Amino acid sequence: EEGNSNNGQQQQQQQRQWIKKIVDFRGVHMEIGDGQTSIRLVVSVAVFEKDVTLILHTSLSPAMPPRKSSSSGGGGSSSNPIDDDDYDNDGTMFMEKFEGIELNGFRLPYPNVWKKSRYLEFSYLDDGFAIARGAGGEPHFLLRGGV
């Protein structure tokens, strides 16, 4: 039975090597630039053993979403249901908007459904480390440094 186990492991390893020749994920990183007004998400892969770089471009602008804990209906009147007291404004909330996609330096067309925006909240833990959370709460861990 041990021989069958070794053969199975060898087959799996050969399959992984074969798949790696088709698509080999190399890495991903996020670059925040232009005074924190843009984000580049850089994905590096090899496709059929040729290096490919895919870059997603987004823009950032300050945002003031409603407070999440506004269950009492807020402090606004019926004619103005939301007033300034109903907003969190601590400088960590941004609106991220998809701006484009690039493949090996060439801008590509993209579908209209991708032309969306989302809230992105930054929590700075220190000068070199931050956590960005999207509207769904998914974390993105960010390290400051050169790429």
Structural write-up:
By secondary structure, the chain is mainly beta. Helices cover 14% and strands 46% of the residues. It contains one helix and eight strands, in the order H-E-E-E-E-E-E-E-E. It has one helix spanning 2-22, and strands at 23-33, 38-47, 50-62, 93-103, 106-108, 117-124, 129-134, 139-143. Strands 1, 2, 3, 4, 5, 6, 7 and 8 form an eight-stranded antiparallel β-sheet that branches. A hairpin with a 4-residue loop joins strand 6 and strand 7 (129-134). It is elongated, with a radius of gyration of 22 Å. Mean pLDDT is 76; it is low at 70-87.
Structure in a nutshell:
The chain has 147 residues and is mainly beta. The chain has 1 helix and 8 strands. Strands 1, 2, 3, 4, 5, 6, 7 and 8 form an 8-stranded antiparallel beta sheet that branches.
